[in-house]
Amino acid sequence: xxxxxxxxxxxxxxxxxxxxxxxxxxxxxxxxxxxxxxxxxxxxxxxxxxxxxxxxxxxxxxxxxxxxxxxxxxxxxxxxxxxxxxxxxxxxxxxxxxxxxxxxxxxxxxxxxxxxxxxxxxxxxxxxxxxxxxxxxxxxxxxxxxxxxxxxxxxxxxxxxxxxxxxxxxxxxxxxxxxxxxxxxxxxxxxxxxxxxxxxxxxxxxxxxxxxxxxxxxxxxxxxxxxxxxxxxxxxxxxxxxxxxxxxxxxxxxxxxxxxxxxxxxxxxxxxxxxxxxxxxxxxxxxxxxxxxxxxxxxxxxxx
Length: 304
Description:
InterPro entries: HTH-type_LysR_regulators, LysR_HTH_N, LysR_subst-bd, WH-like_DNA-bd_sf, WH_DNA-bd_sf. The chain is of the alpha/beta class.
């Protein structure tokens, strides 16, 4: 970046560039940030002049970021997130216990660690404004990098570069099967081989629970389930399980919660231990957490 760019840059510039990336058209981006299309065009031209090159390709169907533009958008999102965090922290310092915190988690840790921690913090700080998003780990880590989360509970691959993150180890999770309460296997402890005649509703290939389940079958010299419905949606899995003889592998914490709150569901235990790869609690190393986010993070870690 040139010195002119850093000296002249304002939040409005960053918001416009992010809006162009999100909407793909200058007019839509201008509307999103509350300015006229000519003003947005002039602002973009000034930014590109200061940056030393075009940030977007002008294509027949819209605008796509150039490599410079993609880098600009990535940093702009982080800067805007930091400004939001600053604004929130000022309000918290002035008010004492209010403020927003944004956390992402995969399903099991959300149920077993994040929600209990949040309930404990809210008892002390009733005016906090938490946002919890449950999503696949790839989505969560990307959101953390872009500044959409204060911290996440997610799994990372063995080849992941964690240098940008402060990482704390989470729990080891085990898997049980969720079935309808009138399923032939409901409430029993069974061998994996006894589950093979039934349909499985499970996340897509490569997901942690899917990998753990298939590994357990293969390690016991069994074929993997032949009847499979792929879905990452817990609601879809429960809908199918409730109306059929299908089973759905879930982390034990999720399975126990479902069996407790839904009388029509039951847990099926397996003789073979099915272990999911550990998750991590991650936040960006050099991005300061607000007091509320730090308090919630500490409570999550205390419970692990």
